[in-house]
Specification:
Largest interface: A-B, 17 and 17 residues
CATH architecture of the largest domain in chain A: 2-Layer Sandwich
Largest sheet of chain A: 10 strands, mixed
Number of strands of chain A: 10
Oligomer: homodimer
Low-confidence stretches of chain A: none
Structural class of chain A: alpha+beta
Radius of gyration of chain A: 19 Å
Distance between the termini of chain A: 19 Å
Number of domains of chain A: 2
């Protein structure tokens, strides 16, 4: 039987989603739990993609195969009872044998939360703190230039094994919650995101907000296909994988 | 010169506000910073009161004496640069030499946040998770019986040195934010709170919400002046010292 699970996690205490030798990761904690449930036999889980150290997820998805006489709720509760309480399995559903949590992804949504208000130590791992004024209107304009199908090579880590840097950002939105919390949320819905892509985009949008770039400079940066043209990678704590759509 | 500072902290990683030998506490971190600023000479800080391990504060207040040729902003920035980033000094102001952060308190406000929605691992240190249904109307009624001047001995730790258990709760309110977040906030504004008082009250209010008690049973529990009559202490992570008024 193949199952798909929805995972929520606080990435603060982890070296990222993906398993690494000797490091505490989300994947390794869940695989450890599944191994116990599976009577000591290893279970591989396959996620929609990795998230980096300090990045959070509301609806990460991962599939795995398990042949146990258990209901999906028993599997879910079993895993939850064995993993640390900063990871939570929201649900487990049965899927077809050929379903793949990464290859079948139709779209993903990431959000990035920026606090423009006073520093709040209670939220330090959950928002990106920004202490200067930002031109939000210019940032919104810049986000519109990111929408559509583009080569995003300027916004990711160049990988010798990769030759396809074309992705589609379906929607890029700036949501203001200034009245309640002095926060802005940058939301990105797209068909696929490469390593550091959202954080590099956010870093560049911050440069637009600071007046170091104009919104239309985004067009040139995309065309350059050169990481050096974009600005620095924004910090991980503001980033959340919000949804994975199949 | 005597100064009053406003302190925000995430209590998750601390053994409470108050200094204890060999334990990591809010007070000891700030006193360590002030000692450095004061050229190695110890500075005692006096807070409005302690908070327990895991309890947070938005506006804790503490006074201290310091004779340095520094502006209040220099002192504030100096302390902030020396303390961990889960503590933050919001401001420092000059006060009279006879001002005392504890003895001069007129009122304090505590809030207690309960999540009635699905468990969220990202908020695990910041809300009290409650998985069953609660009768919120009955809880609100019970809170009205707490308002006024009462002997709160049933709701605190009995202390041989203490004979005065009378306090005034000016206002006790239940705030619903069900639409946005499935959370409720219990807010308590009072002239003084004793050890575990808010958390013991919350634990008893939860018993009312569960139907184990009726709202008017609060009257009997107050009259009993016996800790055994109230219910268990609610967990610390939902509690915030929100304001201290002078």
């Amino acid at each position: 039987m193949r199952y798909l699970m929805t995972i929520v996690y606080d990435g603060s205490g982890y070296k990222g989603y993906q398993k690494q030798p000797k490091e505490k990761t989300i994947q390794s904690e869940i695989e450890k739990a599944l191994k116990t449930i599976n009577g000591g036999k290893k279970v591989d889980i396959h996620a929609s993609g990795r998230t980096d150290a300090g990045v959070h997820a509301y609806n990460q998805k991962a599939h795995f195969d398990l042949n146990k006489n258990m209901t999906v709720d028993q599997i879910r509760n079993g895993i939850n009872s064995l993993i640390p309480d900063d990871i939570y399995i929201k649900n487990v559903v049965e899927v077809d044998d050929d379903f793949h949590a990464r290859f079948n992804v139709k779209a993903k949504e990431y959000i990035y939360i920026i606090n423009l208000g006073e520093y709040n130590p209670i939220e330090k791992n959950y928002v990106c703190q920004y202490n200067d004024k930002l031109d939000l209107v210019e940032m919104e304009r810049a986000m519109k230039y990111l929408e559509g199908t583009h080569n995003f090579k300027s916004f990711t880590k160049t990988d010798e094994d990769r030759d396809d840097y074309v992705r589609t950002i379906v929607q890029a939105t700036l949501i203001r919650d200034m009245k309640n919390s002095n926060k802005i949320i940058l939301s990105f819905l797209g068909t696929g995101f490469m390593r550091y892509m959202v954080r590099n985009i956010v870093g560049t949008l911050l440069a637009v907000g600071e007046g170091k770039l104009k919104s239309e400079d985004i067009i040139e940066i995309l065309k350059a296909e050169d990481r050096k043209r974009a600005f620095k990678t924004a910090s991980p704590e503001g980033l959340y994988l919000k949804d994975v759509l199949y």
